[in-house]
Amino acid sequence: MTDEFQPKMSFRPRRMRGSVLAALVAGTMLGGAVQAVTADTARADETGVIRPDTQIQTLPNFVNLVKQVRPAVVSITANIRMDDADEEGGMQGQQQMPFPFPFPFQMMPQQQRRTVEARGSGFIISADGFVVTNNHVVKGATKVTVTLDDGTTLPAKIIGRDPKTDLALLKVSTQSKLRFIELGDSDKVEPGEWVVAVGNPFGLGGTVTAGIVSARGRDIGDGPYDSFIQVDAPINRGNSGGPLFTQDGKVVGVNTAILSPSGGSIGIGFAIPSDVVKNVVFQLQKTGHVTRGYLGVVAQVITPAMAKALGLKPATDGAPPSGALVASVSNSSPAEKAGLKAGDVITTLNGQKIDSPHDLAVKVASLPPGTSATIAYLRGNAAQTATVKIANLSSASSPDGSVGDKSDVGGPRLGVSLSPLTSDLRQQLGLGASVRGVVVSDVQAGSVAEQAGIHAGDVIQAVGNSPVDNPGATVTAVRAALKANQSVLLRVLRNGQSIFVAVTPGAPDDSGASGGDDDND
After folding, report:
1. Same-domain status, 268 and 302
2. N or C terminus: which one in the chain shows less Cβ crowding within 10 Å?
3. CA 367 to CA 358: how far, in whole Å?
4. Distance between start and end Cα atoms, the chain
5. Residue 493 domain-assigned?
6. Which segment of the chain is annotated as a signal peptide (predicted)?
7. How far is CA 16 from each of CA 7, 23, 25, 28, rounded to the nearest angstrom?
8. Residue list, annotated binding site for substrate
9. What is the CATH number of the domain that holds 484?
């Protein structure tokens, strides 16, 4: 961690710090009561002694709630290969991220050369032992164990993982029925509402913290479908995968990331909404992987200048028009078949308001492929509607022209999506005009590419001794070698440095996941 991210600290004189500590202890002895004293209500008797006229406001008491839900909250221990542990968020992965935070907060020391023991949290959602946690808690794990609240340790199998939402589903083996908790309705959560986070930070055992919801729908740039609940409840390392409760004992979020310059909690935490969890867990439980809806538009934010140029009317409160401006429509896509055109402004999807392109992407992705959806949009300020049949993102052609070798049905799969090295990508990656190769735009969970350590953003420059400069040639060369059951040596440009990555056909998926995300972005 670099010095510029260290928090600034100020020191008080020793006597002052003692006074502050005494005040904190005294406040604790009040048993959750807050006393408010104002100059207007304070009065003094004839001796001059001030007799405050206080008002006492009692804070929420979570004792009964915690006692009832704690048996369903578990601690997760994962043995993770060193190369995979380096990729997981937190302080381990900051050097590989485009920003130092926010980051997943599950990380443990990595003194061993081959594997590290990482700890996170999770919670039981069924009597037969299904457990929800974060993908980054168990990614690359060769062994996973779950410890119940009573200390019982059970082996766990990874049923499926979804990197795009950072969720994973486990199954523990047990002869008895387990106590479990229900997923609530995160759409009903409001800023200012009290919430409780339960987890296993720093391996201390079950720990409880409380706070309020700060905001909903936060996009922190961690994934394509970010829509986090922001909370100020203190959340620390090891809380990854733990539940976020409302006062009625329902889980409304999965604690996933924090915004922190120091690695510890500063009161800005993020949880995956339970509505997202329900959809992902259902699919993982049913098929072991997640499919997402596809509309086929490239959309952009409506700026005030753009709204004026398009002649869009402002909202009733004078704010700029909300919605997603369609910049382009993919050929033969559901959007094109429904008649959508560049310049249209999508305002609602199935009656739900669309505030931004990101909002549209999240809502479309949550729709099951094959379902019909109603889109309301503006065309030249005229309100119109269209019915679209949502397609499967994994089988759709990407609007940026990317090619996924996993979209083909025949032959062995590497498990990546490849894009041509366009001028825009060169600029984003900071590459000169002389660099040749193809860009890895996505890596499928559990694939041989992931097992080999290939990352999104890598530039594949050669397969064996043969240089490559287009996705088709790369896929052909890799598949030819894999089909012959040979290891493939790739020359990869990563962060400005050339490295070699060996891909072995039929590499075991030590995570135990039966499938990953089929999306081909």
Report:
1. no
2. N
3. 15
4. 32
5. yes
6. 1-36
7. 21, 11, 14, 19
8. 136, 166, 238-240
9. 2.30.42.10
Closest CA to 141 of 99, 108, 95, 164: 108
How much is the pLDDT for 158? 93
**Residue that is last in its domain, among 287, 310, 326:** 287
Asked whether residue 272 is domain-assigned, the answer is yes
- SS3 of the chain: helix, strand, coil, percent, to 5: 20, 35, 45
Q: Is residue 104 part of a domain?
A: no
Q: Tell me the one-letter amino acid at 521.
A: D
Assess whether 265 and 247 both reside in one domain: yes
- 235 C-beta neighbours (distance < 10 Å), count: 30
Is 338 among the domain residues?
yes
Domain housing 451: 416-503
Please tell me whether residues 264 and 345 are part of one structural domain.
no
Domain count, the chain: 3
Pair of tokens at residue 46: 């004839």
CATH number for position 204: 2.40.10.10
Positions marked active-site: 136, 166, 240
Number of C-beta neighbours around residue 416 at 10 A: 32
Annotated binding site: 136, 166, 238-240
The residue with tokens 């969720």 is: 167
Residue 514's Cβ-count burial label (10 Å; 0-12, 13-18, 19+) is middle
pTM of the entire predicted model = 0.62
Kindly list the averaged pLDDT for each block of 10 residues, start to end, along the chain of length 521.
36 37 33 45 67 71 88 90 47 32 42 70 94 92 90 93 92 91 91 89 74 86 78 82 91 87 75 92 91 87 79 70 85 91 91 88 89 92 92 59 36 72 74 86 77 85 85 79 74 84 61 32 32
226 and 301, same structural domain?
A: no
